[in-house]
Write a structure and sequence with these properties.
Elements: E1 2-6, H1 11-22, E2 26-32, E3 35-38, E4 44-47, H2 54-64, E5 68-70, H3 77-86, E6 91-94, H4 100-115, E7 121-128, H5 138-145, E8 152-157, E9 164-170, E10 175-181, H6 186-199, E11 205-208, H7 209-214
Parallel strand pairs: 1-2, 1-4, 4-5, 5-6, 6-11, 7-8
Antiparallel strand pairs: 2-3, 7-9, 9-10
The protein binds nicotinamide-adenine-dinucleotide.
Amino acid sequence: MKYGIIGYSGRMGQEIKRLFSESGHELVYKKDEDGVEVIETPELLIDFSLREVFPETIKIVKEQEVPLIIGTTGLTVSDFEMLKDLAEDLPVIQSFNFSIGINILSELVKKVNQYVDEDWDIEISETHHRFKKDKPSGTAIMLGDLIDRDLEMHSKRLGSEFGEHEVDFASTGEVLTLKHRAYSREAFSRGVLMSAEKILDLDAGLYSFKDILNK
Ligand code: NAD
């Protein structure tokens, strides 16, 4: 397939390019803070850039009229309204975490949450590399949304950690910890590739990565 990346020279942009090239897909549209290079019209666009770029991404996707996969974090409630609006005409896949493991972890968190009562403490911790701008991570927010109460979130920004998330459930006598750790960005690019290989067959609509895994 012929695809484009918004945030092309970033850490994720380069990792996506690496894996997609290995799978025989052709990068024909590159957008970065320095400008855009269009070799051909892409069949789909992938955005892993910055929250600030989001309005520009929406404009580009509308102009190009192609499906969008977006992994950029820090999106606001009104950004999601814009995504829903876009998804009336085009397929859009959005996830704050494209790793398979985190999506399994989400299911486990929902399950454990059903078993524990108010007497249990629940806290979420996340660690990412020092360059990550948003805090707490989009994934920590997503995990927190699965739990029907306000809870503490802890964030560390350390060295080159790709992404670690931990959910602790504790009563006075015991602790149950669910933990996921990505040890390379391939944890995310594999999910982006899976999504890209399915998106051209989807009807217009807003999908999560979990929807793609369940297909
Ligand atoms: P990065 O800082 O390495 O890359 C961001 C890129 O965006 C840079 O190359 C920058 O030049 C580019 N950019 C800046 N202005 C731009 C503009 N106007 N138009 C197009 N591009 C522009 O960051 P990263 O580590 O690659 O992460 C990118 C995003 O993806 C972040 O929001 C991060 O949190 C998120 N992320 C999501 C997942 C997931 O699974 N959903 C996984 C990892 C990272």
